[in-house]
């Protein structure tokens, strides 16, 4: 459900890292991407939720006031150790 402008940068990063591969029908996780699927998927999650409520998804820690929490992933050198 993300717009093309929201996924362009993550797609480029993931293709460059070899975690995604392009197919005739779109994109899929590469063999390496399947091994690091959590890293691949978090590239498409916002650091802060765009909505509120039970369905709000982001990569901040659960609990507390979301705006006061540090993000778990901030790009290169983040929590996932690039």
Keywords:
alpha+beta; 82 residues; two-stranded antiparallel sheet; disordered C terminus; 2 strands
Structure description:
It is a single chain. The chain is an alpha+beta fold and 82 residues long. It has three helices and two strands. It has a two-stranded antiparallel sheet with strand order 1-2. A hairpin with a 2-residue loop joins strand 1 and strand 2. The longest helix has 13 residues. The chain is globular and about 35 Å long.
Order of helices and strands: HEEHH
Structural class: alpha+beta
Oligomer: single chain
Rg estimate, integer Å = 14 Å
Summarize the amount of helix as a percent range: 25-40%
Distance between the termini: 27 Å
Low-confidence stretches: 78-82
Overall mean pLDDT: 74
The count of strands amounts to 2
Strand order within the widest sheet? 1-2
Q: What's the quick description here?
A:
The protein is an alpha+beta fold. The protein is 29% helix and 10% strand. Residues 78-82 have low confidence and may be disordered.
Task: Break the fold down into its secondary structure elements and pairings.
Blueprint: H1 4-16, E1 20-23, E2 26-29, H2 31-35, H3 37-42
Antiparallel strand pairs: 1-2
């Amino acid at each position: 459900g993300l717009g093309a402008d929201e996924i362009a940068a993550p797609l480029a990063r993931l293709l460059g890292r070899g975690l995604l591969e392009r197919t005739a029908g779109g994109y899929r996780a590469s063999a390496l991407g399947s091994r690091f699927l959590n890293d691949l998927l978090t590239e498409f999650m916002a650091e802060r939720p765009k909505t509120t409520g039970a369905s709000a998804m982001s990569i901040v820690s659960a609990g507390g006031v979301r705006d006061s929490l540090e993000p778990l992933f901030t790009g290169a050198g983040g929590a996932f150790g690039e």
